[in-house]
């Protein structure tokens, strides 16, 4: 096997563009020097279109979970009631964080593979009028569902005064996101998915409504105190040492996204989703999610007549290609293909052609090339 | 389009493995320091299996053509008669270099796309008994032909006392090469093809018979004087400043080749050739060369009902994928796909799936997926 080549198609971390790797290799600079201030100033303005917001976006050194915990500890405190919408493992994570902080947590548990429905959220809010915040996941990485956060935001604001807090980790930067227009009060994402960076940064923004809550919130917090980040950002600084190399990389990521244009980035992800889904439909291998619930960044496949782990093993062995397995009760039941960030239709075609070989080699009698053909047709029609 | 992604599938320069790029980024060292001596010592032993020789392999800073000229000026001088076997543009280059130095040059001109035949070489040597050197091309990059250098070497040594000098630029490191066993007297290759490095190094080795000629050769030469390189190499040094970064990279390339094993590297290239050829046969698009004449490193395709330049343009535009066109009288008649060096069966599948889309988009009514299917079947049967 070709030494060293790896094909990473998990839903994050995702491959790093070469120019981003080069940018991250710049010599270290002092984190209080003017160079860092200039870097932070350049970044802060250019992140806003990705979130669809006029608010400041704070960048913390930490993983996506650090961002989710930051959202919780800044907006709620013990005794508060919240609603957490769970459509998979990352919805559950929001619930666990809330429970850790002794927040009274109502759950809206949706069958894994399905999207949450705004109507159900409305009903729960009517039933529990004290709910102060609703937590949702935009793309549920564990199932490949893209939840209708725009509709849910409307349901939240129509039926309550609660804040609407969204985990956008596995899709912001790859799908249209209009934080201000849709009424998202707190939006969180991470660096290692559509943002094409290594793990290590989390991004978070808050609405004016959210800031009023945050300023009054008594929950103890130090590193995760968003006010400190906001106050420092006014002077193009950070309260604690920023992850400088990742910021170098982020500046280059912004350059790449701007050069492609966000509109084209979102279109590319739509086409990659459609190519992937068309391929498995053509192979008669079931998808976990329906077309309307599907995320442009990750696709979960739920085969009926072969073991996804056998497939994952053989493509790893033959091609050093990695796709993700299932989590929790979907372990061994599904596999998940990431198609986000530094990933192109050409990469999707490669992934599918290798998966076809893998499926054949583990003994399922498929017609080779059929999935590829369907994906090629989608490409020709849609791009 | 995904900013920055490029898919380079020309027959050299070829993609650089990430670890080789990292190796080349090491801090510069003094070219007369012990570090450089250690580097040269490590390299010189490890290159020998690639050439299939016990002779020293000299590494010059220069392109492949510098290596070809080095072979000429060290072995022949004005008044000498030579035979140059021409199967394409790089055979012609050997002839032009000989002619530049006023060497009496007999040509064995083979129709482009065909391989040279040992029998014809035997006859020419019998007809011109004064021939002192025979120049041949192992892989003719311009046509994708792999010439039978083992058979030609036998013909040369059976019928003459001439030296047999071989341009191995576009295949050594990707195909089996037994310089000593086959009787190649001078073998040249370059860094930017199967050796997975940027252009800038040329490699050259000579047999004991060749060294006797080289030592007596009166042709003026300074930078290209092989004796200087040999004498310096005894002390793990070079007569002129070596291309240090490329040597850093070369050390890592050797690591990669050793970790895969040369046997597996050669097998991988065979399979990539077979996959590529099977794909175009399945699409009913003619190949320029016959199966026995085909090179494992590059495939030339000669379509009858579409313009290869249209295809090259559309895949460049859609995918930033580059394949090569034809040279000289084959310009506009063929396109050439490189599949050597840092290239895998997975990459071949990607290339073919993109070329299928390109062919469809320029208006030829092909069945998508058919070429891929044939290539996938070859992969499953052969690897």
Automatic annotation (TrEMBL), chains A, B:
It comes from the Bacteria. Transmembrane segments: none annotated. Residues 28-328 form the Aminotransferase class V domain. Its cofactor is pyridoxal 5'-phosphate. InterPro entries: Aminotrans_V_dom (IPR000192), Aminotrans_V_PyrdxlP_BS (IPR020578), PyrdxlP-dep_Trfase (IPR015424), PyrdxlP-dep_Trfase_major (IPR015421), PyrdxlP-dep_Trfase_small (IPR015422), SP_NH2Trfase/AEP_transaminase (IPR024169). GO terms for molecular function: transaminase activity. Keywords: Aminotransferase, Pyridoxal phosphate, Transferase. Belongs to the class-V pyridoxal-phosphate-dependent aminotransferase family. This is Alanine--glyoxylate aminotransferase family protein. It comes from Virgibacillus halodenitrificans.
């Amino acid at each position: 096997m070709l030494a060293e080549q790896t094909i990473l198609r998990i839903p994050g971390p995702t491959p790093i563009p070469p120019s981003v790797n080069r940018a991250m290799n710049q010599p270290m600079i002092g984190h209080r020097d003017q160079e860092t201030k200039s870097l932070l100033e350049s970044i802060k303005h250019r992140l806003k279109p990705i979130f669809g917001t006029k608010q400041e976006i704070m960048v913390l050194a930490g993983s996506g979970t650090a961002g989710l915990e930051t959202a919780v500890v800044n907006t709620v405190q013990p005794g508060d009631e919240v609603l957490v919408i769970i459509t998979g493992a990352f919805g559950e994570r929001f619930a666990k964080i809330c429970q850790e902080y002794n927040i009274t947590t109502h759950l809206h548990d949706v069958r894994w593979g399905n999207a949450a429905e705004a109507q159900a959220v409305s009903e729960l809010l009517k039933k529990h009028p004290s709910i102060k915040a609703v937590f949702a996941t935009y793309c549920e990485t564990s199932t490949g569902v893209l939840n209708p956060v725009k509709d849910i935001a409307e349901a939240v604001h129509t039926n309550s005064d609660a804040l609407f807090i969204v985990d956008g980790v596995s899709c912001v930067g790859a799908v249209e996101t209009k934080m201000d227009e849709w009424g998202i009060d707190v939006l969180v994402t991470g660096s290692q998915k559509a943002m094409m960076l290594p793990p290590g940064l989390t991004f978070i923004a808050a609405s004016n409504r959210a800031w009023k809550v945050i300023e009054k919130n008594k929950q103890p917090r130090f590193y995760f105190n968003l006010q400190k980040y906001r106050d420092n950002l006014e002077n193009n600084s950070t309260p604690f040492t920023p992850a400088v190399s990742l910021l170098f990389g982020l500046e280059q990521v912004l350059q790449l996204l701007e050069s492609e244009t966000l509109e084209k980035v979102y279109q590319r992800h739509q086409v990659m989703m459609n190519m992937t889904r068309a391929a498995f439909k053509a192979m008669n291998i079931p998808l976990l999610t329906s077309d309307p619930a599907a995320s442009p960044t990750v696709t979960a496949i739920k085969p009926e007549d072969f073991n996804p782990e056998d497939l994952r093993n053989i493509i790893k062995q033959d091609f050093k290609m990695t796709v993700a397995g299932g989590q929790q009760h979907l372990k061994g039941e599904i596999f998940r293909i990431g198609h986000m960030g530094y990933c192109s239709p050409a990469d999707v075609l490669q992934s599918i052609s290798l998966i076809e070989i893998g499926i054949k080699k583990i003994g399922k009698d498929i017609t080779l090339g059929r999935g590829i053909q369907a994906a090629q047709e989608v490409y020709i029609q849609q791009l």
